[in-house]
Amino acid sequence: MPNLTTDRLLLRDFLSTDVPGVHAYAADAQVCRYMDWGPNTLKQTRVFVKETMASASCSERDSFTWAVTAGGELLGACSVTITSTEHHRGELGYALARRFWGHGYASEAADAVLGFAHEELGLQRVEATCRPANIASQRVLRRIGMQQEALLRSHMLIRGRREDSLLFARVD
Predict the structure, then answer these.
(1) φ/ψ bin of 120: left (φ > 0), alpha (ψ from -120 to 50), beta (otherwise)
(2) CA distances (Å), 84 to each of 81, 88, 150, 167, in order?
(3) Distance (Å, rounded) from C-alpha 133 to C-alpha 72?
(4) How do residues 102-153 score in pLDDT, each as one tens digit?
(5) Hey, which of 16, 29, 102, 119 has its CA 20 to 30 A from 161?
């Protein structure tokens, strides 16, 4: 998988040495509060990193997950998954450690991955969802040119509760 670079970031494959950095955000209840995963146990974090590393070595794949780094430090993860090859459609996702929130890193990483999705994967439509209460994520998605299209009622089951989602998309 190719590395992606921005002015401040390097998005690269995950390494086994990333487990502590991943666990620092994946075990944080504040980071995970709007996600359908986490807070992770150390075992769950190790499995995530191992599976992501294995996926990166596959020649035929439909999911790409990068470690988001700056100055050699792990900030989080950003991914794109092809949801339909026939319709050239994909889905974007990201998570950053809380101490890196509010610095524009999520927008910078997501924009790089969105560019990869359109230019390298040939996706015409890339979607992302977030919970309505996640104002920061809404800002990130709007900043990278995604438009809010819908409210998906009772879309996700998060820690035993049905949650709505906002659907965003960018069509190129």
Answers:
(1) alpha
(2) 9, 6, 20, 17
(3) 32
(4) 999 999 999 999 999 999 999 999 999 999 999 999 999 999 999 999 999 9
(5) 102
CA separation, residue 170 to residues 71, 86, 106, 134, 149 (Å): 30, 17, 17, 19, 10
Helix axis angle, 19-26 relative to 42-56, nearest 10°?
Answer: 120
59 pLDDT more than 90: no
Contact between residue 167 and residue 127 where contact means Cβ atoms under 8 Å apart: yes
| φ, ψ (nearest 5 deg) of residue 4 | -115, 140
Instruction: Evaluate the omega torsion of the peptide bond into residue 39 and state whether it is cis, within 30 degrees of 0.
Output: yes
Quote the radius of gyration of the chain (alpha carbons, Å): 15
Phi-psi region of 159 (alpha: psi -120 to 50; beta: other; left: phi over 0): left
